[in-house]
Amino acid sequence: SAHGVRVEQVVADANDPGAAATVAQAAVALGPIDVLVSNAGGPPTVDPTATDAAGWQRAFQLLAATPIELATRLLPGMRERGWGRIVAILSSGVRQPIPELVYSNAARSALAAWLKTTARAVAAEGVTVNGVMPGRIATPRIHELDSGRAEREGSTEDAVRAAHLATIPAGRYGEPDELATLVAFLASDRATYITGQLIAVDGGLIAGL
Q: For the chain, what is the total number of helices (H) and then of strands (E)?
């Protein structure tokens, strides 16, 4: 209401194999879909030496299978109209694995591989496909991770936060608006020549090339 924009909501559980079809069908019924931003939180932390098949199945459904199927269902319309934007929210763990988030590191990396591959297949048709890799953004998810680590290590959330800040050259956690600004740009006409990219918003956290 603040912006005079009508918003429609469709509810589905991204862990459900039928979720992508539910969302795509409902979205297309409203009209042509030009922009898809996919974003899923989780999965839980785990000792990388103690994973299990059920955990892997949930992670890949949530972070790879559902967003890939949703994008695949919406791509034909974008290609037909000669314009489209797909932006996936990934994680810095795609480039620099986060020790306690092995499920996330692996499943998001699978999505990143799909993005890079698909971007080349549709680039000439006016559709761009990109991934954004947030570092530590000040959200409830990061609070959950910091407090969970503090509990596991018998420490405090402040101490955990300080340890993370020591690894971030910018010296702070990012703000949601700083991530959203990049996503909005990638979804705009101004980003026509940017595709197949994995772009970090991390305050310099990722150390590798």
A: 7, 4
